[in-house]
Design a protein that fits this description.
The longest helix is centred in the first third of the chain and has 12 residues. This protein is of the alpha/beta class and 254 residues long. The radius of gyration is 21 Å and the shape is globular.
Length: 254
């Protein structure tokens, strides 16, 4: 008998909660409302429909960066590597399917920068060498605060050097279980006010101007994964010309 595969959901839901500074608006239309719509379309009456009910439907107004999503190069800048940056519908699907690797950075305090040394140390502990097209996931533990206002400012984050280092290993897609791939805005703002060093602003994202890559944000449940040896599937919703697409990433563990 073939070994049963285990599927682990790595997504956060799209919902109207204090964790989202740009909150989605979600209107659920129940079967009673659906009945009235169907009667108008088909010219039927209540008794013509099963249990005198129609379909359910939902209307959402939200940004493409709500819930778990994949940022396209277009989100970072209009150009990448000297060419027009890819929008989410142009991201190659083979980038979004591959061997997953989890780097545990939960020992790093909120707001701290994940350095190249941190990444190399994490890989040494795992006795793992990153391969081209691995999908590298950064675990900060911030997902445990989902639903609360503090989620927005929780977790450590990536910067320029660490992101470049991963790209140089052949990584095209990476991700994090925090609100953003960079350090929380509060930490960046504080450091910029103190130093006026413009290189601190969105340092990991802006790497995409010179080196093409994508990253996942608002992941969850990375603590349920083995550090490596699993397959990750993270295909984004195809939105023409968009800077990001919603994703329900799934880890497949044999």
């Amino acid at each position: 008998m073939a070994k049963k595969l285990k599927f682990i959901d790595l997504s956060l839901p799209i919902e109207n909660v204090p964790s989202e500074p740009f909150r989605p608006e979600i209107i659920h239309e129940d079967h009673q409302r659906g009945k009235e719509v169907m009667k108008g379309i088909f010219g039927c009456e209540d008794e013509d429909l099963p249990n005198s009910l129609g379909w359910a439907n939902d209307t959402l107004t939200l940004i493409t960066h709500a819930g778990t999503h994949l940022d396209a190069p277009w989100h970072f800048a209009p150009t990448s590597e000297g060419k027009k940056a890819k929008t989410i519908d142009e991201v190659p699907l083979d980038w979004c399917y591959g061997n997953g690797v989890v780097l545990d950075m939960r020992h790093k305090a909120t707001g701290k920068l994940i350095t190249v040394g941190d990444i190399e140390s994490g890989l040494k502990k795992l006795d793992y060498k990153i391969k081209p097209r691995d999908i590298v996931l950064i675990m900060t533990g911030a997902d445990k605060h989902w639903g609360k206002p503090e989620y927005f400012s929780e977790g450590c984050g990536m910067g320029r050097e660490g992101t470049l280092w991963l790209i140089e290993q052949g990584v095209k897609v990476m991700g994090i279980d925090a609100w953003g791939f960079d350090r929380p805005f509060s930490a960046i703002i504080e450091d910029f006010k103190r130093t006026q060093d413009k290189s601190l602003i969105w340092a990991a994202h802006f790497v995409g101007i010179e080196r093409e890559y994508c990253h996942l944000e608002k992941l969850a449940n990375l603590d349920q994964l083995p550090p490596f040896g699993f397959t990750l599937v993270c295909f984004p919703v195809k939105i023409t010309g968009a800077s990001a697409g919603w994703v329900r990433p799934v880890a497949i563990v044999k």
